[in-house]
Amino acid sequence: MTKLIFMGTPDFSATVLAGLLEQTDYEILAVVTQPDRAVGRKKEIKMTPVKTLALTHGISVYQPEKLSGSQELDDLMALGADGIVTAAFGQFLPEKFLKSVDFAINVHASLLPKYRGGAPIHYAIMNDEKETGVTIMEMVKQMDAGAMISSAKLPITDDDNVGSLFDKLAVIGRDLLLETLPAYIAGDLIPIAQEEDKATFSPNITPQEEKIDWQNSARSIFNQIRGMYPWPVAHTFLNGKRFKIYEAKETIGEGKPGTVIVKTKKELIIATSDGAISLKTVQLAGKPKMSITDFLNGVGRTIEVGDVFGK
């Protein structure tokens, strides 16, 4: 039986961990995940999905704020694991930790060498990619730069957003890992080095990137909105108040960018530099998230054609 340390944090990671736990060939000695955080308006402390799953299986959980130089690192290295499997963990692993096991591999949600970094799914959508996927790679000191062991592709449709792709890729990543691990451990798979000149990066989304620029095209703004849904959520401003746009669609229309060009009881359309955006699910600062119909029949009923978003 192969002894593993699993490292991950969100639902994507939990799906991969659940797959490993169903197998009889692996023993999960410990799980490492990010510390519990305060979430939501009420700032309630919430366990990560990986921690929740691990505890239901009686697995020891480690949550160092920073793994490097921690007591937790020493404890993990003393467990005698054969290998490390990571999936959306969110921290760099110290080189001595990587060298303490026979192998260390990562389940990464992109087709490497494209989109190394912490937000590969977000950027794939925002950049209007037509496909994405999962790559199983060896871990090295440099971020997501290890040799590739296996990969699987998935088309991106206009109906996809970050949430839907995370769910799809989690299942693909789980299945690919379970298919890959036995042959890799047996030495039957030869990893392939990444082509460095083709590497692109997907750092964590910045607050500035969340802000909509109505001077962009409708296609670009549509991709930005779905590339940030359900998190961190794209926003604009309305009469000086932050206005989040969770869901929208491209449509036909002309006007000064940011200007309301159509308003009915069920529809609000805003012009861009090329085409227009029809809002579907929104949230004005201080108000709950709601459908555009509920918004227009409530707090948004004073909006008129000619009003400008972004100010």
UniProtKB/TrEMBL annotation:
- Swiss-Prot/TrEMBL keywords: Protein biosynthesis, Transferase
Question: What region holds the Formyl transferase N-terminal domain?
Answer: 4-180
Under Enzyme Commission nomenclature, its number is: 2.1.2.9
- What are the protein's GO molecular function terms? methionyl-tRNA formyltransferase activity
PROSITE patterns found in the cross-reference section: GART
List each copy of the Formyl transferase C-terminal domain by range.
Answer: 204-299
User: Which residues does (6S)-5,6,7,8-tetrahydrofolate bind?
Assistant: S110, L111, L112, P113
Catalysed reaction equations from the record: L-methionyl-tRNA(fMet) + (6R)-10-formyltetrahydrofolate = N-formyl-L-methionyl-tRNA(fMet) + (6S)-5,6,7,8-tetrahydrofolate + H(+)
Top-rank lineage group of the source organism: Bacteria
InterPro entries, alphabetized: Fmt (IPR005794), Formyl_trans_C (IPR005793), Formyl_trans_C_sf (IPR037022), Formyl_transf_N (IPR002376), Formyl_transf_N_sf (IPR036477), Formyl_transferase-like_C_sf (IPR011034), GART_AS (IPR001555), Met-tRNA-FMT_C (IPR044135)
Q: Give the protein's biological function.
A: Attaches a formyl group to the free amino group of methionyl-tRNA(fMet). The formyl group appears to play a dual role in the initiator identity of N-formylmethionyl-tRNA by promoting its recognition by IF2 and preventing the misappropriation of this tRNA by the elongation apparatus.
Q: Which family does it belong to?
A: Belongs to the Fmt family.
Q: Which protein, by its recorded name, is this?
A: Methionyl-tRNA formyltransferase
Q: Which gene encodes it?
A: fmt
